[in-house]
Design goal:
Elements (H helix, E strand, L loop, with lengths): L7 H5 L6 H23 L5 H22 L6 H27 L4 H8 L2 H13 L5 H18 L10 H24 L6 H23 L8 H28 L2 H6 L4 H13 L5 H18 L1 H9 L2
Length: 310
Amino acid sequence: MYRGPMTVRAFHTRPHRLLWPIMAVALVASWSSGFVGIRYASENADVMLVLFWRTLMSGLILLPFALLIGPRISARAVVQQVVFGVAMMFLYLGGFALAIGQRVPTGLVALISDLVPLAIAALSQPVLGHRLSGRQWAGTALGAIGVLIASADSVSLGTAPIWAYVLTVASMLVFALATVVQKRMGTINMPIHQALCIQCLTAAVLFAAAAGWNGELMPPLDGRFECGIAWLVLFSTFFCYGIYYMSLRLYAAAEVSSVLYLSPPVTMLWAWLMFDEPLSMLMFLGLTVTLFGVWLTSSRAASRQMRASY
């Protein structure tokens, strides 16, 4: 069995001060890579098909390690991770994909998805009892403002049905709520490869139904799709979710999520390097504002204030 919720003593035993900056850089790079990988793989394939093969391959690769390495997985733990798989993979990723399919502008979808840190910060006190300081709230607000500035050129309202816009917001809120509930329940302490395996296979079953509804489950036979899936499995799933869950074990949820505000400008840099998409001065201005906000939220002084609130 995995251990229960992290104790106050465990939380106060902080790792080396240089570990968080390294993990933060890795988290932002891998988190933003998911958008690039999906775009690359979905040039000739439906997005739901891409998500099905991403989660299926991830789960199957992890399955033997989940069964042979680590503690025995109880039925209760399986049920818990199935629920989180539905919330953090199928509803989060699938909700945004469906919204885009209903013609909600991609820029608006990306903007809403990147407001996850704001939702986590708002939920941290009522769910986790983590009281954010004024400095941390200011940093969170600046991060959101930076995202708005960086995304200004690509955001429009569009003409999609109202429920598609509601779905976009709901998907973001579901991911944020699942994050803080995992922290609250202590399920975040389950070995990462076991938790991720169950979540991926759960999402794969649901994405199979969605992809089958839109067409067939067979992937297109071209190298672009295969390279995109390999990218999504290795970097955007294994590395990204691994870093995310490891960070949540060591640091406060609001502190971890705050660096995700850097995902939009970093995604734009990825797109510039790989797809020759143009960059704008607003993107660099937004990046500067966001960096300052993340620094306010994640600085050592802010971290000490958060630990003092436990």
